[in-house]
Amino acid sequence: MSNRSRLQRGGSGVGVRSAAALIAACAMTAGAFALSAAGEKAGMPTVALPPETAKKPVTETIHGVKITDNYQWLEGDNSKPESMGTINKDVADWTDAQNAYTRSVLDNLPGRKELEAKLRPLMEVGSVSAPAMAGSRYFYSKREGSENQAKVFVRDGFDGKPKLLLDPAAIDPSGLTTISWYVPSQDGKLLAYGSYRAGDEISVAQVIEVDSGKRLNFQVPSKVSEFSWLPDSSGFLYRNLADSTNPYSGQVRLAMFDKGTAYLTSDALLYRQFTESENKKLATTYGPDGSLSRDGRWIVLAYATDTRNNDLFVASMETYKKTGKVEMVPLVAGKAAASSADVYKGEVFVSTSLDAPNGKVMKKNLDDAKGELTTIIPERKDAVIQGVSVAKDLLAVNYLKNASTQIEIFDLAGKSKGMLKLPGIGSAGLSTEQDRTEAFLSFTSYNYPTSIFRVDLSKPEMEPVLWERPAVPVDPSTVEVKQEWYSSKDGTKVSMFIVHKKGLKLDGNNPTILYGYGGFNVPMTPTFGAALFQWFDAGGVYAVANLRGGGEYGKAWHEGGRLKNKQNVFDDFKAAAEFLFAERYSNPKRLAVVGGSNGGLLTGAFVTQNPELCAAAISAVPLLDMVRYQNFLMAKYWVPEYGSAEDAEQFKTILAYSPYHNIKKGTKYPAVLITAGENDSRVHPLHARKMTAALREATGSDQTQTPILCWVDREAGHGQGKPLNLRLRDAADQRIFIMWQLGMLK
């Protein structure tokens, strides 16, 4: 199973509440906003006080520590996937009131309409994916201008005329349905695709005939997230959930269908997630995954053992057909290693961190039962392997060096054929197929719009040929990008990208956004965002810190920011802010910290640990109550990353940084905007609700000028697949909030 997903990603409901009801609620509190002379801070707009939240204390003792939770009632009953989008009346009423208040504030800030007008053309910049190649056909997704979701197209020949295959707007005029992935059959005659609605990420798979556009007579439900075809298109392997309401019910199945009737003839279970009685630890990891080799002879299977590592196996399809049994042969198993594999010409090529924290590539002849995996591309100490792609008689290895991409081409024996020429320093990925050296390169950087190039991997030294690049209404050359290094609290050197307009004066007073993530081995690499150019034009600085816990510098970097080491992530982020102050980019009154999901935990911890170091914070779809997080939705997946309060030692670590539990009465907290999605199947919106209430109760700041705002989106989940109109609203919300608090409104 390759590091590059076989699912080509496109853009992302249940119980969506009436938009009319929300509009009415907003109208009732439209007078909450005012420009008041009394107590006004440096001419800043002031707002009415927020709606009150009832306190309903619940006290429990955990490992000898008594904890009183005044807002546990805001967890509601939305604890399981089947109840996503449905909450009890008390919580629904609370959410209505908060949403109405937040809209009344953000929609009426001075310059809101002008900001939206500036952001709209930047947000309407189109997008295009690298094509998936099948036979003579090229499948890709593209979103134009004001379209809410990306469509899926096919070309016969790389320069052929585009043919529309899938249009989400035709499926759902509301703009809430997303084509989440698509995979063509090897001959390009069939296309499998997944779709979901309102951000719930419960993808349903369907198959269409490419020539006729006709849908075949079956669907595969329950969050299909992996899909690969048999060579003759007679069947396919997929991963989904056995029960869409149970995130811990992952399974890998093999389906066959009759081409004449287009109905499924069989659907067999190959590999499933352990139950708690079978293996308590592995029952709550992501579980099994699988793919088929291109020649259909081999099944590659994996089982996640924590948030980074997995066991890896291969099984003979011939044996399975004869016996009905999946005889799994271990490739890398029982070890703390992240491993993936591709099979080509009877050999398996394994990318693994086994005894190589930065990754190496090994291979084995699958027809030799006694053969061993041997290393063909050894570990580099200066770069981390992010993925390996197989092309015709070639391997393309994607490295990350100093948080930027390098791609080196090797023959099948591991001999280097040279570095693939890239347009510059940035982030890149490849779309390859095993029957050709032709490939498509995606490249982006902070000052380089996302572009798709056609390349020949047999000639890596040649200049990439531009295939498609959406037009952008900005001049990327007007900004400069730096990579700086700074020391964290324990002396560890951490890198940070800093982007701003050329010629910016470093006077210590520039409005600055500091962004971070720091978790799950996910690297923060350069990417283009047209909407940032409004910020740059306004004199703003944008900084992205490569915190421990991420994947920028290998296994040790990730380990340095997980479990008992999680505080290192927050220390790295604090040190990044202090570096920006010391180097005269900004100061605490002109700094906003921003993060989402695990990054929302980051900004929540920053606010509770260092409230004096920023003027504003955005915590999007965050984890904030770390004592109870593991009890909701799929959060047990993340216990290997954070630990769990159920463990006495881990509880001590978690309690020490859990943002919700470290709010201190009377502290002058900065302004905070906390967002959540009602249909979020990953992070429960309880975190946003409870943190909002607790911060408001505790803060010593004047909430008419330094408010705590909460926005719970009834038409969204974790953020995936959100249509353009909602993304524009969210971008304007966050930007106007930051500009307000950093003193940029006129």
Explain what the structure shows.
- The chain is of the alpha+beta class and about 750 residues long.
- Among the domains are: about 20-120 and about 475-740, Alpha/Beta hydrolase fold, catalytic domain (Rossmann fold, 3-Layer(aba) Sandwich), CATH 3.40.50; about 380-470.
- α9 (about 600-610) links the parallel β38 (about 590-595) and β39 (about 615-620).
- It starts with 7 loop residues before the first strand and ends in a 5-residue tail after the last helix.
Beta-strand portion reads 25-35%
Q: Classify the oligomer.
A: single chain
Order of strands in the sheet with the most strands? 34-35-37-36-38-39-40-41
Number of strands: 41
Topology-level CATH name of one domain: Rossmann fold
Helix percent reads 10-25%
Main sheet characteristics: 8 strands, mixed
Question: What is the CA–CA distance across the termini?
Answer: 54 Å
**Based on the structure given, which CATH architecture of one domain is correct?**
3-Layer(aba) Sandwich
Tell me the Rg in angstroms: 26 Å
Q: Which CATH class of one domain applies here?
A: Alpha Beta
